[in-house]
Write a structure and sequence with these properties.
Elements (H helix, E strand, L loop, with lengths): L9 H12 L7 E7 L2 E8 L1 H10 L6 H31 L10 E10 L14 E6 L3 E5 L1 E6 L2 E6 L1
Antiparallel strand pairs: 1-2, 1-5, 2-3, 3-4, 6-7
C-alpha cells in the first residue's frame, strides 16, 4: 500500500511511533513546531490520549463525546495491533508509513505563538488539543514555549 505521507521529517515519525508503541505509559514530549506560518507549542501525546481528552471535554452523552470516545477505542486497538506487528517484525522490517494513524502529530496543552513572548489570545490560559499532519511540519524544537502573562516559560524534555 503506497503511503500518502510525503516530505516528512523521519525523526518526528520515529517519535510518533515511540509514543504510540508506549501509549499505556502516559508519555508526553514537550515540543514547539512550525507549520506554515504558525508556531504551535505543547506536548506530543498518543492519539489515544488525544481522543480521550477531547471526549472528556464534551458534554456527557453528547454525540461528539461518543464520537471521540469511539475514536479513542479505535486508536487503542490500532496501537495494540501496531505494537504486535512491530514486536514481530522488528525495527528494520516494520514500515510506519503504512499506518495512517502515524501520519499525524497529536498535542495537548497546545498554544499558538505569535512570538517567543506572546501567545495567541485564547479564552482561557489553558491550552487546547491539536492535531496536524506530519508532512506539514516545517521545523521543530524539543522545547514547549508556553506563555503566561507575557512571561515565557520553557519546558524541556
Amino acid at each position: 500500500m503506497p503511503s500518502m505521507l510525503l516530505d516528512y521529517d523521519p525523526l518526528l515519525l520515529q517519535v510518533a511511533l515511540f509514543i504510540l508503541l508506549n501509549y499505556d505509559k502516559g508519555i508526553d514530549i514537550p515540543i514547539t513546531i512550525s507549520t506554515g506560518s504558525m508556531l504551535i507549542a505543547g506536548h506530543l501525546v498518543s492519539p489515544i490520549e488525544y481522543y480521550q481528552g477531547l471526549a472528556a471535554e464534551q458534554k456527557q452523552g453528547s454525540p461528539m463525546r461518543l464520537l471521540f470516545a469511539q475514536k479513542a477505542e479505535e486508536a487503542q486497538q490500532q496501537a495494540k495491533e501496531i505494537r504486535e506487528e512491530y514486536d514481530k517484525k522488528g525495527n528494520n522490517e516494520f514500515n510506519p508509513l503504512d499506518k495512517p494513524i502515524l501520519h499525524f502529530l497529536y498535542m495537548r496543552d497546545a498554544h499558538f505563538l505569535l512570538s517567543a513572548a506572546f501567545a495567541f489570545p485564547l479564552t482561557s490560559d489553558e491550552g487546547f488539543w491539536w492535531r496536524c499532519r506530519l508532512n506539514t511540519v516545517t521545523g521543530f524544537m524539543w522545547t514547549a514555549l508556553i506563555t503566561k502573562d507575557a512571561t515565557a516559560e520553557v519546558t524541556q524534555f
